[in-house]
Amino acid sequence: MASLIRHLTVDCADPYTLATFWAAFLDGAVTEDDAPGDPEALMHAAGAALLFVRVDEPKTGKNHWHVDLQPQDRSRDEEVERLLALGATLHEDHRRADGRGWVTLRDPEGNELCVERGAAER
Questions:
Q1: For 33-56, how does the pLDDT look when each residue is reduced to its tens digit (9 = 90+)?
Q2: Which of 8, 60, 102, 122 is the most exposed place for a label (fewest CB within 10 A)?
Q3: Nearest Cα residue to 118 out of 69, 65, 55
Q4: Which pTM does this prediction carry?
């Protein structure tokens, strides 16, 4: 049997705050064992687990991988607005006049993520 991905690990300055932010994004939850100031925090959501680990080095460049999100019960544009309200920032807008395309956002520590068209829009 092949290995399974248990969780994705994200280096960051403030694990609990970033885990809480992503939990709001993905309608997930930070594990009960984690608290502000902890050196790591684990967030579980449907289909994903993200482990945030404190590192001293700041993010200095573009991610070599990122998360693509596909909204299930709202449009891409509605999801972008929701994520911006949660604290994401707009990085690049690749939406096309024909409705295709995606939007690249950044989380509070500058990690990129893309929002694709929602399931109903495909």
A1: 999 999 999 999 998 999 999 999
A2: 60
A3: 69
A4: 0.88
